[in-house]
Amino acid sequence: MLNVKSNPGIKVLIAGSILQLFLGIIYVWSVFVVPVQNNFGWNISDVKFTVNIMLCCFVLGILTAGRLQAKIKASYIVLAGGMMMAIGMFATSLLSTAVPVYGIWLTYGIIGGFGVGLAYNTIISSAQKWFPKKRGLATGISVFTFGFSAVIFAPLIEQLILSSTIGLILTLRFLSVAFLVATAALFAFIKLPENVKGATVDFGAQPQYTTGQMIKKVDFYLIFFSMMFLTAAFFIINPSLKLLAPIHGLGLSFGVTLVMIAGLANSAGRLAIPLLGDKIGRHGAVLTILLITAVGTASLCVLNGMLFVVVIALIAFCYGGSSGIFPLVTADHFGLKNIGANYGVVMVGFMSSVLLFPYLVGQLNTGVDVLPADNAIKYLALAAIAAIGALLTLILILKSRKGNK
Fold this sequence. Notes:
The protein is an all-alpha fold. It folds into 2 domains: 10-197, MFS general substrate transporter like domains (Growth Hormone, Chain: A, Up-down Bundle), CATH 1.20.1250; 207-405, MFS general substrate transporter like domains (Growth Hormone, Chain: A), CATH 1.20.1250.20. It is 75% helix and 0% strand. The chain is built from 17 helices and no strands. It is globular. It starts with 8 loop residues before the first helix and ends with a helix.
């Protein structure tokens, strides 16, 4: 277990994990979709697209944070990220019905998403660097609370929005203040070892690749595209969970519960999959979650009721696992020294998935989306995407066994 006396980084890990709980608001957008559409009168598809913009800017924030960590103290990067998230949320509450949907894309999507990415990468890098011999556990804890955010905030936000005395606008303002307070209270605890005088970290004998060196390696592209193909299923399905619940034989009121279940499974995967990787190997863990995602997504074509809920939970579990395992895979292949910048580039695979697959899968309109069968081709397409990722991971495994990097 982690020892407070032997490693001062435990304070960094605790503070970072609490901050991740607030930053994970990125995963509860499905609770906002209908209230935002009703309040502003925007097209529902455009409102749902906000999460795609946010996820893209989330990755851009991760990339930027990776570069900044060599120049600016980690605490300042986290402060900037948390403030941007709070500002973006508050600015969203100031929008009027006369503003086009681009307004929320800017405030919640671009400003908020970029801020989350800044803080997220810095917190993950800190966790890995302070605990180089327990990276699976430290990273798992750090990303667990990010995913667990949906479990706490989804029902809270739902109740606040439905309240006759609070509603959507005040909910956004309350959340922005909460994020600002949490950031102000905890940002100073987030430090990389290189920011602390006298602190040292043993990176071992493994080569420490720069980003420029990393992108010349075949392994990088296998990891990059494996992440790209793994993440598509969840973030395409997740924003529509409330709408999918009645389609698959669950009551409309069950939608928020489904979001909470997905959030809990997402969180569990973030902690469990890195630990599984410690037992069976990181590559084996990646291959496992890709195969589960492929089979599970295909099965949604015929599942209803609680079986549908179970499979959604499995897909969310695997997606959450990707957030915990891919930083470790990146460090295994390219070292810890430049993990912030290197993982930021790997995460471009995530962003590419956000940009590409919603458009491609969105072209597969086979019905009116009111019956499970109407979405069958979409589910099968997502399953095929995950299967391709599994094939790429298998190639990475075979290549690594030959020692040809």
